[in-house]
Design brief:
alpha/beta, Rossmann fold, 2 domains, 453 residues, binds zinc ion
Length: 453
Amino acid sequence: MIFGKKKKSTDNKSSAGTEIEVPNLEIKASGVNKDEAVGLLIACRQLPGYPLAILLVTNAINTRADRILIDFSAQGAVARYRVDGIWESLPAMDRATADALLVVWKKILGLNPAERKARQDGKFATNFRDIDWVISFMSTGVPSGERVLFTIERKKPVLKTLTDLGMRDAVQETLKGMLNGDKGMVVISAPATHGLPTTWRIALENADKFVRDWVLIENKKNQEPDIINVTEYFYEDGGDSAEQVFDKVRLKQPDVYVLPSLIGPQIVEAVLGQIHKEHKHMVTRIVASDAVDALIQILKGNPKHAKALLGVAQGVLNQRLIRRLCESCKQAYQPTPQLLQKLGLPAGRVPKLYKPTIPPPPEQRVDAKGNPIEIEICKKCNGRGYFGRMALFELLVVDDNMRKAFAQLIEKPDELRKFVKQAGHSGFFEEGVLACALGQTSLEELQRILQGK
Ligand SMILES: [Zn+2]
């Protein structure tokens, strides 16, 4: 079967022949004229690469992949799906097959199929399995050949609350208290590819915006989807500068400044002035490996105002995405007292932990005589053992003791982390163990995440 998945296509027609059933995928390419698009699609349906081109995308959606990467080399091409953050290779394709598939996508998206070096970008909207999707396409020449990336996103975000993200109630309360406070700075952070834009949006949307005015100032070129009840102002090259925009915004007397980046020393100084004199509040974000790293980066990135920024810092949130165990096939086991002790869990409190069910690879599914044996593969997770992801959160509360420690140990991050731990801060390990104790994830997965894999 193409792309190795046993799954049947979306309809139930049984096909006696060898024809591959290609699901119907409606494609609305952006930047392509409507009439032209219809003609292109009809023409593309006749091309040999059409069935595979469509299956590449529909199978990706069926397996919940959010990225498709294809690497073309002189010999052939390898496509990979990213499911819950893990890359899975599909069976290798020969070059002719892969080229035929790529021609189809470039044509449908109004790009030039003959161009294999310069970067080309396309985008299309589709509805598949009753869900609206927005799919971006990018192709570019690389030293080994050509690389193609599809990014698959739902048009409407599914995650809406901090609970959806997996945040514990106690952490939610503390975070909301920080966001709804005044005279301070709250930092939201995560390592790259760990869902920072989503948490940023949801945290801001769940803060109290009914009695306070929230404004966001950002470079126009970094514009992201709107955040409900946050008024957005943009600066841009050739237009109003960040300082000009800030001056205008200040006149409106907002309560909270939302700065996806700290922009520059002038803005930092102006916002700090507003925090001190008028009890305004600030929320910013940064890509960082943990909460300590996030605050260090902010202080070091703004040396002139480091002391003042540390003075107003109230809290730093950081998160890492972790796979959830598949509820249909996870297996319980009894942890030994030694293991519980190692995890810092009191004896008797956690009777069970869980692990994933991972079937052996196909070549090992044989009996002693080498005859194939049928192993039932979980229909929900397709043998991955995991289904979907949640975030582990660490929320660093920055009090006077913490400020002192950051001021003294900023050049010694490891000592700083030790101090933070001794101060009773719950980090990714402690949060992860809690998630394991609740049966949400496994110790193996926690270990993978803690190692930054
Ligand atoms: Zn399963």
